[in-house]
Design a protein that fits this description.
Number of domains: 2
Number of helices: 11
Radius of gyration: 20 Å
Order of helices and strands: EEEHEEEHEEEHHEHEHEHEHEHEHEHE
Mean pLDDT: 97
CATH architecture of the largest domain: Alpha-Beta Complex
Low-confidence stretches: none
Distance between the termini: 25 Å
Bound molecules: NADP nicotinamide-adenine-dinucleotide phosphate, zinc ion
């Protein structure tokens, strides 16, 4: 066993606090990573507070993990000691179902193993990246392109792939009008990718203080979603809209902005389900869809795309002890645009 140190929630109401735990000893196909940085995803907050149900405590969150390989098993081919490596939301899957064979491990019908708040094949709980280290099968570890700032790469492992994957799946490209709802961790990556794919991108926000930033990040237009006249001006014009909002909100006001046959895809997971009247879909044969992170191959493709195009996340580096305060700021939408924990501060 590997003695690990991290920060955990002991219950849904407890603050985050130092926590010692054990990981499996690295096997022949495993790599051991000393974690340098871990992004703070809104899913971490939903899960430590058990907003989705089924939480396993104590919970060490974190699935935007980057660091340095410190040991490799005898059968490991992709990594050597000293390499930079990343781990996202998945650490295992059945590897044999149709979805796994088609490199869509996130949809594994046998049940993918999530990086934390999940269970390994032997039933042991998984623990995430708010910790000093992680042990992972090399098949579920990612290679980090050279030249990108490691701390700013961390959020790509979840916020990056979760937005890249649907934009690719629905074939977002030049000549299209694309909307991004919510300018947070996911939203700002969606904006960067949709622009990089050549689309005309409109950012929707509820925060007046993010309007100028959205333009700096590449938005062709920014709309305050509580401005009825501004919303109406875009009615029936969008090819695709990606909704990244973390709290209950009116999704119908965005679906109505789609043109005929347009698609709105939900990636945000508010605590309560949205209300959708069939007429808003029927009226223009619109689709409402959802998308979960991305498979390992596509995550590597996304990282390589970021390496080629110089894309990373806009981050604010935080100390481990400030995690609860950072959760509170995240709840208020006060993040520009991803908190990343500097694990060098773990014991401070
Ligand atoms: P985040 O950084 O907190 O951003 C969420 C944004 O939503 C906020 O910045 C805010 O943007 C907007 N928002 C918040 N409350 C709102 C409200 N009441 N009404 C309207 N807009 C509101 O969160 P994140 O890390 O990007 O995650 C977003 C959601 O995606 C979370 O629910 C998370 O669990 C989920 N998620 C899903 C997947 C997946 O695979 N599908 C993967 C990762 C995360 P403005 O200030 O611009 O309005
Ligand atoms: Zn996440
Ligand atoms: Zn599978």
């Amino acid at each position: 066993m590997t003695a690990s140190r991290g920060y955990a929630a002991q219950t849904a109401k407890a603050p985050m606090a130092p926590h010692a735990f054990e990981r499996r000893a690295p096997g022949p196909k495993d790599i051991h990573i000393e974690i340098a940085y871990c992004g703070v995803c809104h899913s971490d907050l939903h899960q430590v507070r058990d907003e989705w149900g089924g939480a396993i405590f104590p919970m060490v969150p974190g699935h935007e993990i980057v660091g340095t390989v410190t040991a490799v098993g005898s059968d490991v081919k992709k990594f050597k000691v000293g390499d930079r490596a990343g781990v996202g939301c998945l650490v295992e899957s059945c590897r044999t179902c149709d979805n796994c064979v088609e490199h869509q491990e996130q949809y594994c019908t046998g049940g993918a193993t999530f990086t934390y708040n999940g269970r390994d094949k032997d039933g042991a709980p998984t623990y995430g990246g708010y910790a000093n280290d992680i042990v992972v099968d090399e098949a579920f570890a990612l290679t980090i392109p050279a030249g990108l700032d490691l701390a700013a790469v961390a959020p790509l492992l979840c916020a990056g792939i979760t937005t890249y994957s649907p934009l690719r799946h629905w074939n977002v490209k030049a000549g299209q009008k694309v909307g991004v709802v919510g300018l947070g961790g996911l939203g700002h990556m969606a904006l960067k990718f949709a622009k990089a794919f050549g689309a005309h991108v409109v950012q929707f926000t509820t925060s007046a203080n993010k309007v100028e930033d959205a333009k700096r990040l590449g938005a062709d237009d920014v709309v305050m979603s509580n401005d009825d006249a501004a919303m109406k001006a875009h009615a029936g014009t969008f090819d695709f809209i990606l909704d990244t909002v973390s709290a209950p909100h009116d999704v119908m006001q965005f679906i109505g902005l789609l043109r005929r046959d347009g698609t709105m895809t939900l990636v945000g997971v508010p605590e309560k389900p949205p209300v959708v009247h069939p007429f808003v879909l029927i009226g223009a044969r619109r689709s409402l869809a959802g998308s979960l992170i991305g498979g390992l191959a596509e995550t590597q493709e996304m990282l390589d795309f970021c390496g080629t195009h110089g894309i990373t996340s806009d981050i604010e580096l935080i100390a481990m002890k400030d995690i609860d305060a950072s959760f509170e700021r995240m709840l208020k939408g006060d993040v520009k645009y991803r908190f990343v924990i500097d694990l060098a501060t773990l014991d401070a």
